[in-house]
């Protein structure tokens, strides 16, 4: 085997890519190459939990994407962070461990025709890499009553204790957040001490991907302890995939055989004997497919790119969680606004973290969560709250000078759909990202209903002693129309783009992948990242992406003796209309 020929080429060293590197390189007879456009995760702010403030918007760790001007956001364009470093978005995200709801995965099974995606069949793949803090001593026996309490919706054990992906409780509490939790319960939302059993309805503190007060990203979990010491594993950082190489076989079928890679030394060509696994994320994966001639035919032709496989779903079906940030001024309780308002306060915060790895520097961006229904007649929880003991006008701007908390609420199951499209043939040019937020009547109604629910929670007796005063959006907005427009003025992404290379049935012309995440019509190529989700999960998306990668690793291992398993011979999809 030459220096440029590998068995598996993995593009993207983020959430899914890091796990796949670990699992596939465990077979020492297989040579694995990881291609990562960013640098190593040796930037100190990656590892200090509050460092997300210095990683988002920083070219050292972020692709620095922006959305197109959004009609649903009244013409605003949003910052759209995507991790550009080993660990990918797990190096800059909110560290929240969240699987979603069982119904999400049962729905995927219906959409793909494959029961492998059902909740009961996905749960083992969540647990396989999980290292849950409650089970630290002797498995379930380590926590009194854990065997009974930590069961999934369908009665199975729901947490693992021997995997690489550390899940811990947060290392701080706030009086104002405890009061919000009590107020939510008074408003009819039950308390919860585990959001990850399949039904996440309730209010409680989020669990986080941290280890002893440090961020736990996928580079530390899956790459550093194992892959770095394997002779069959090679990693290229600051190397960006330029184009996938696809050859037409003797029988007329197409196969991905390698990748052109831009490195500091020029353009390198690498070849794959088995598979290329595209793990670049819901924005960069469809971009690379389109640049390689795999995507909507009309779009590719417009930019002078030869059409290799006409798949109109590449870059379509973009879904994201849009959060509406409400701010309430309070009295009689500390918040980060006041604690960090002076040099002395900041010094105390730094000292607490240095000595105990606790306090505000150990904070995830959101500490308290709640899952509930926008209206009583909703059949399932369709809202998620991220509650924070701080407030500011916009991300990256200074904290307000007054004590306040923020209650951000998002629609878990938006019906709006957007797009990711290349703007030319240059791989270095950012794609056009158009999430199309609040473009449906359903999403606008949920936005209005969620703002009313937030007001109802904040009017409960548990918060009365803090005299909450609505600062943003302001009580002058009352009608559905006013609240929906207001949501467009103040809402922002919570950084959960999915769906742009969705999996689906063979008769779905917009399905880019089959149920094992193989690209239709192109053998030897899979997309393994959040873009493969046909619908967005009812919660944060990092952990579901790890589960998907775990499944694919298992399928690849089991399929090595079955050469036909990677051949996808689905018919070409019809040409895109209006691409």
Automatic annotation (TrEMBL):
PROSITE patterns found in the cross-reference section: GMC_OXRED_2
Domain Glucose-methanol-choline oxidoreductase N-terminal: 281-295
InterPro entries: FAD/NAD-bd_sf (IPR036188), GMC_OxRdtase (IPR012132), GMC_OxRdtase_N (IPR000172), GMC_OxRtase_C (IPR007867)
Superkingdom field: Bacteria
Keywords, alphabetical: FAD, Flavoprotein
Signal peptide: none
Keyword Flavoprotein in record: yes
Required cofactor names: FAD
PANTHER family: CHOLINE DEHYDROGENASE, MITOCHONDRIAL, GLUCOSE-METHANOL-CHOLINE GMC OXIDOREDUCTASE
Entry similarity comment: Belongs to the GMC oxidoreductase family.
Record protein name field: GMC family oxidoreductase N-terminal domain-containing protein
């Amino acid at each position: 085997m030459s220096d440029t020929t590998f068995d598996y080429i993995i593009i993207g060293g983020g959430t899914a890519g890091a796990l796949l590197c670990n699992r596939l390189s465990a077979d020492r007879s297989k040579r694995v190459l990881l291609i990562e456009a960013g640098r190593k995760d040796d930037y100190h702010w990656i590892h200090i939990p509050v460092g997300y403030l210095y990683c988002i918007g920083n070219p050292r760790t972020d692709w620095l994407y922006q959305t197109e001007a959004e009609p649903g956001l009244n013409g605003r364009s949003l910052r759209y962070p995507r991790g550009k470093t080993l660990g990918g978005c797990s190096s800059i995200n909110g560290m929240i461990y969240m699987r979603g709801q069982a119904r999400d995965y049962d729905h995927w099974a219906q959409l793909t025709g494959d029961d492998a995606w059902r909740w009961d069949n996905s749960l083992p793949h969540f647990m396989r890499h999980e290292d849950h803090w409650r089970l630290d001593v002797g498995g379930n026996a380590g926590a009194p009553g854990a065997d009974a309490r930590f069961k999934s919706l369908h009665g199975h054990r729901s947490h693992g204790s021997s995997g690489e992906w550390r899940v811990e409780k947060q290392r701080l509490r706030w009086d104002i957040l405890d009061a919000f939790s009590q107020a939510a319960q008074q408003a009819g939302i039950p308390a919860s001490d585990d959001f990850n059993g399949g039904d996440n309805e309730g209010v409680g503190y989020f669990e986080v991907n941290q280890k002893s007060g440090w961020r736990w990203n996928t580079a530390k979990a899956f790459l550093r302890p194992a892959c770095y010491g394997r002779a069959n594993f090679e990693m290229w950082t600051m190397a960006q995939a330029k184009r996938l190489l696809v050859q037409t076989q003797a029988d007329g079928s197409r196969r991905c055989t390698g990748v052109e890679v831009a490195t500091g030394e020029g353009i390198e060509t690498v070849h794959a004997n088995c598979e290329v696994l595209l793990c670049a994320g819901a924005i960069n994966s469809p971009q690379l497919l389109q640049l390689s001639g795999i995507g909507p035919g009309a779009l590719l032709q417009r930019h002078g790119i030869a059409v290799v496989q006409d798949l109109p779903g590449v870059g379509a079906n973009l879904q994201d969680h849009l959060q509406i940030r409400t701010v309430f001024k309070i009295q009689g309780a500390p918040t980060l606004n006041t604690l960090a308002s002076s040099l002395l306060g900041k010094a105390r915060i730094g000292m607490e973290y240095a000595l105990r790895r606790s306090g505000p520097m150990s904070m995830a961006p959101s500490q308290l969560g709640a899952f509930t229904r926008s209206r009583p007649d909703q059949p399932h929880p369709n809202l998620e709250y991220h509650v924070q003991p701080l407030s500011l006008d916009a991300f990256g701007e200074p904290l307000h000078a007054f004590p306040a908390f923020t209650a951000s609420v998002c629609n878990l199951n938006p019906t709006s759909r957007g797009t990711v499209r290349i703007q030319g043939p240059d791989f270095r040019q950012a794609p056009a990202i158009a999430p199309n937020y609040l473009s449906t009547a359903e999403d606008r109604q949920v936005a209005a209903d969620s703002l009313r629910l937030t007001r109802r929670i904040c009017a409960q007796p548990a918060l009365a002693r803090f005299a909450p005063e609505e600062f943003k959006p302001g009580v002058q907005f009352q009608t559905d129309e006013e609240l929906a427009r207001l949501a467009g003025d103040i809402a922002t992404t919570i950084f959960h783009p999915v769906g742009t290379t969705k999996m689906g049935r063979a008769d779905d012309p917009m399905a880019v992948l089959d149920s094992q995440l193989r690209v239709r019509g192109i053998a030897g190529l899979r997309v393994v990242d959040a873009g493969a989700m046909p619908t967005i999960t009812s919660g944060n998306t990092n952990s579901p992406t790890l589960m998907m990668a775990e499944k694919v690793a298992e399928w690849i291992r089991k399929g090595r003796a079955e050469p036909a398993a990677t051949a996808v011979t689905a018919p070409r999809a019809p040409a895109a209309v209006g691409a």
